[in-house]
Amino acid sequence: MFARRRGSATPPYTQTMKKIRLLLVDDQSLFREALRTLLSLQPDLEIVAEAENGERALALAKVHQPDVILMDLRMPVMGGVEATRRIQQTAPAIRVMVLTTFEEDEEIFEALRAGAVGYLLKACSADKLCESVRAAAKGAAVLEPSVAARLMAEVNRSAAHSGRKATQVLADPLTERELAVLKLLAAGRSNKEIGTGLNITEGTVKNHMTNVLGKLGVLDRTQAALKARELGLI
Question: Taking every annotated instance into account, which residue ranges of this chain make up the domain HTH luxR-type (predicted)?
Answer without folding.
Answer: 167-232
